[in-house]
Amino acid sequence: PVSAGMNGSAIENFSCVIYNIFLMNCTWHAGRVAPTDTQYFLYWQKSRDEDEMECELYITDGNCRNMGCIFQNVSIGTEKAYFLVNGSSKDSLIQFYDEYIDLYKIEKLMPPSNITVNCDETKNDCIIQWQRPQISHSNKDMCFKYEINIKYK
After folding, report:
1. Where is the Type I cytokine receptor cytokine-binding domain (predicted)?
2. Residue 55 sits in which domain range?
């Protein structure tokens, strides 16, 4: 749908990241021509089957304007999630911003755990082992690539 409101009043630089397995942080900048009293509100829908939810914990700037949101207990589904940020102002209509996002693409993975190093000086080799990081969108073993940086002492 076409967004009513003043051109340049919608938010810009919308970005979300999922971290620590179940937390999601979304941020944005105010529209370039949005009046100073503009307040923004974020809604998201994980899938078509679920209800749209408003942000429960907004991140505000020095003017108490909502500039981000922290979501807890986020789980990643197979469908693209829908995000909508609309705004309100006493002075003018504010354009909305919306986007569909594959949540698994914005997940920042935890580092591997239980890293062990066993070296055998007689064979002049080492075995390094670890457990893959926990991820929120699957319990299956996925294809992970690791980079190992070894520094000699």
Report:
1. 13-106
2. 12-105
Contact 115, 106 (CB under 8 A): no
CA 41 → CA 67, 68, 126, 145, 150, distances in Å? Answer: 9, 9, 53, 38, 47
Counting the structural domains of the chain, the total is 1
**Interval 82-137: pLDDT, tens:** 999 999 999 899 999 999 999 888 988 888 889 898 988 888 888 899 988 777 66
Q: Which of 44, 43, 68 is nearest to 58 (CA)?
A: 68
* Separation between Cα atoms, residue 39 and residue 94, nearest integer Å: 9
Give whole-number Cα distances, 16 to 61, 75, 84, 115, in Å.
17, 14, 12, 30
Distances (CA, A) of 12 to 59, 95, 110: 16, 11, 28
Residue 139 lies in a domain: no
CATH of the domain at 70: 2.60.40.10
Q: How far apart are CA 97 and CA 109, in angstroms?
A: 27
pLDDT at 78: 78
